[in-house]
Write a structure and sequence with these properties.
- There is one protein chain.
- By secondary structure, this protein is mainly beta.
- A hairpin with a 5-residue loop joins strand 1 and strand 2.
Length: 89
């Protein structure tokens, strides 16, 4: 992982690195009730997969959210892409 960013609402986290793809995960909301239930189950809270974005030909150097539905990425292939996250393009 070379870059990590949270969406403006903190509902999503995006990251990228040497595998040339961007991963967007939905961050679960946590309150004390959820945390206590997770402890009872002896599991840790986790993020659910949201989407993987492919389009760069080299490592991902930066990911930044514009809003919850779009992000900007830059790559070692000397390109930048503005992503439409819900449509995965």
């Amino acid at each position: 992982v070379m870059t990590v960013a949270f969406s403006t609402s903190s509902e999503f986290v995006g990251f990228g690195g040497l595998n040339n793809k961007i991963n967007i995960h939905k961050v679960p909301s946590l309150d004390l009730t959820d945390l206590n239930e997770e402890k009872k189950k002896k599991k840790t809270p986790h993020c659910r997969d949201h989407v993987e974005l492919f389009g760069h030909d080299a490592y991902i150097s930066c990911v930044r959210f514009l809003d919850d539905n779009s992000c900007l990425s830059s790559s070692g292939d000397h390109s930048c892409i503005v992503w439409d996250i819900p449509h995965e393009k």
